[in-house]
Amino acid sequence: MQQLILPIIQIVLAVLLTAAILLQQRGSGLGAAFGGDSTVFRTKRGIEKSLHYATIVIAALFFLTAILNVVLA
Q1: Alpha-carbon distance 64 to 70, whole Å?
Q2: How many domains would you assign to the chain?
Q3: First CA to last CA distance, the chain
Q4: Which pTM value belongs to this model?
Q5: What tens digit of pLDDT does each residue of 8-62 get?
């Protein structure tokens, strides 16, 4: 049963991580999304800051589940 749960958790985390990253990119211009010149620096506030921290947490959880998958397999 454990061999089935871990890949499902990884898939869910991958989808959440992709969505969180895409939601962050939506706020920037098209040029900045593809590496263009973005000289405007501003602080993250409100939901943008929460989304930034959530992305970090989801990425860390994805990394940990990937390591667990390698160690337990």
Answers
A1: 10
A2: 1
A3: 13
A4: 0.74
A5: 999 999 999 999 999 887 555 555 555 555 556 677 788 888 999 999 999 999 9
